[in-house]
Amino acid sequence: MKNYKDLPNDSGSNIVGQVTAQANRVKERLSSVKYTIAVMSGKGGVGKSAVTANVATALSLQGYSVGVVDADLNGPTIAKMMGVRDSTLEYTSTGVKPATTTLGIKVISMDLLLSEDDAPVLWNAHSQKDAFTWRSTMEVSALREFIGDTEWEELDYLLLDLPPGSERLANVVELIPSLSGVVVVTIPSDVSQLIVKKSVTMARDVLSVPIIGVVENMTYYVCHHCGEREPLFSNEDSVESTFQFTLLGRIPFDPRLSQCNDSGIPYIEQFPNNPASEAIVETAQNIQNYFNTQS
After folding, report:
1. In the chain, how long is the greatest CA-to-CA distance?
2. What is the pLDDT of residues 133-155, one digit of tens each?
3. CA quadruple 105, 106, 110, 116: dihedral sign
4. Which domain does 134 fall in, by range?
5. Which residue, 32, 186, 208, 249, shows the most beta carbons closer than 10 Å to its own?
């Protein structure tokens, strides 16, 4: 078995050369993307993918060219939420043409490569029991190909929907050293905020990635009978005081948002005047404001 000292002189598999070529391809592809944003949470179940899909829609409706990478390779949902799950990817000599939504948003997702609804993502290994040893490495390689092989062309924003886990951001920073920033998604519960704090620390203190701000999802719901706003969770601490970062938006719970995601229909087009739509649009505008103040 070869160790890392043997790799530079490895004339067989040329691993170093392959990785270098892939990294250069990623850099070349992203040279036409103005801002690359990672959307992370650290904890599952906070609606991070829904926020990603709907913020991408809001940015598109405001006239920006947008792309989305579903970086959750084992639990992809973006293709379904954005209504492109039945799309067929087109392979050309220069790369892969991404799926495109009705609004022109470009999407790449592992879900577009799976043949059946119940098909899991299986990594090549001597056995699947052994696959965990190389899983992280293989996931990084697959994500590198997703970004580097896709023909993004000119984009204002490329959003990366990360899987749960604070360590996932490190993989993205390895692939995209010039990452423009991170959007953190949480819900107003002590458990969620406890875990999300770890992701914030990882981004800010360990990886030194700019944090654009925090989105609080499912902040409250509106009673259908009296119209009053009622909190879904008991945590009364503000996001600003908890994370010490800009609050990009507070998105209320609306079952119709979930229904639209399940159907692949843009929620903010269907219900433009609802509180959740207004909060999503505000979130997109605050992301724009962040970059406007940086330039």
Report:
1. 72
2. 445 677 777 888 889 899 999 99
3. positive
4. 29-294
5. 186
The type of residue at 79 is: A
Hey, is 211 helix, strand or coil?
strand
User: Are 276 and 251 spatial neighbours (Cβ–Cβ below 8 Å)?
Assistant: yes
pTM of the entire predicted model: 0.86
**Cα separation values, 30 from 35, 111, 155, 188, 231, Å:** 9, 22, 9, 34, 41
Instruction: Kindly report, residue by residue over 261-288, the tens digit of the pLDDT.
Output: 999 999 999 999 999 999 999 999 999 9
Per the model's pLDDT, the better-predicted residue between 228 and 7 turns out to be: 228
Report if residue 2 sits inside a domain.
no
The CATH number given to whatever domain includes residue 53 is: 3.40.50.300
Six-digit token pair at 167? 């360590």
Q: Domain for residue 9, yes or no?
A: no
Rounded distance, CA 280 to CA 286, Å? 10
Domain count, the chain: 1
Q: Residue 287 falls within a domain, yes or no?
A: yes
Q: Name the nearest CA neighbour of 75 among 162, 198, 148.
A: 162
